[in-house]
Predict the 3D structure of the following.
Amino acid sequence: MGLKASRIRVPGLAGHHDPAAAALCTRAAAGDQGAWDDIVERYAPMVWSICTRFRLSDRDLEDVAQNVWLLLAEQLGKLPEPAALASWLAATTRRECLRVATASRRPEPLEPPPAAVTGEVVSMAERNAALRAALAELPASCQSLMDMLVSDPPYPYAAISTALGIPVECIGPRRARCLERIRESSALLGLAHIGGNLPGGDPGA
């Protein structure tokens, strides 16, 4: 699904504990390849984002990312707080980056990102993971509409009307109903609420 969860505003996030992450860890530990794939899809952007802040070489970036996933595979089923998977991955990635950077004897002093920055990355990853899950629960008609509205750049209302067979004047109300479905989604139990406006303004304006 091509929906871009990061382009939908989510002002609040309740902590760094995600019941869905705990369920994925349990399933992956039991050998569910689909659950493992979901974990990688959810959190690989966060791992990569943290790595790039350490100014490592491309080869070192790949080595760190590989080590992080290997460590997670070894620890699945042993994590003290599976619901805090994003925080565990962030801390592990940061530690591995420091280890690789130190081993490479960089000529310039290393300035790792502040813990606050890493926390922001964790929050973003959890927020986007919850949104992707919520978007996946939408009916196909809503998924198609939201996909076009949050594309980059967003489709104009006239193009959406032609592609989906929706009168232009009905697109706004239908978008509101789809957003309401997202707000009520079980995937957003850890989120406070979703902002009603899509970034970039109204594509039909």
Helices lie at 19-29, 33-52, 58-75, 85-103, 115-136, 140-149, 157-164, 168-183. The chain is about 60% helix and 0% strand.
